[in-house]
Amino acid sequence: MNKEIPKFVHPFLWSYDILRLDIEKDKKRIITNVLNFGTDDAVEWLFATYTQLDIIEVLQDPLPGEWNKKSLCLWSLVFGVAAEIKTRHIPSVL
């Protein structure tokens, strides 16, 4: 597995310090952002970098509040998994 995130993937991780992202530890974040926003090149890199199982696990347990509904539906169909948009739970202050 290539440990470096290529420059053409950087725009899809715009709010993160690329130098601090770890391909393995941050795979859920990287997979989510690339599948949500990535170009064909970025998605090809993602498929070459992560296993199908890695991607399916992210789709089955999506980061709350992070997925575009259309993107999650598309990739769920592509990988044949059931996925559901999760919202962030903000506890009541009262």
Brief digest:
This protein has helices at 27-37, 40-49, 52-60, 69-79. The protein has 94 residues and is mainly alpha-helical.
Description:
This protein is mainly α and 94 residues long. It has four helices and no strands. It has one domain. Helices cover 44% and strands 0% of the residues. The longest helix is centred in the middle third of the chain and has 11 residues, at 27-37. The relative contact order is 0.14. The mean pLDDT is 90.
Assembly state (oligomeric) = single chain
The residue fraction in helices comes out at 40-55%
Q: Quote the beta fraction.
A: under 5%
Question: Which spans of ≥5 residues are poorly predicted at pLDDT below 50?
Answer: none
Biggest sheet overview: none
Calculate the terminal CA-CA distance, rounded to whole Å. Answer: 48 Å
Mean pLDDT: 90
Radius of gyration: 14 Å
| Class by SSE composition | mainly alpha
Shape: globular
Supply the number of structural domains: 1
Order of helices and strands: HHHH
Any key phrases for this structure?
single chain; 94 residues; mainly alpha; 4 helices
What's the helix and strand layout?
Elements lengths: L26 H11 L2 H10 L2 H9 L8 H11 L15
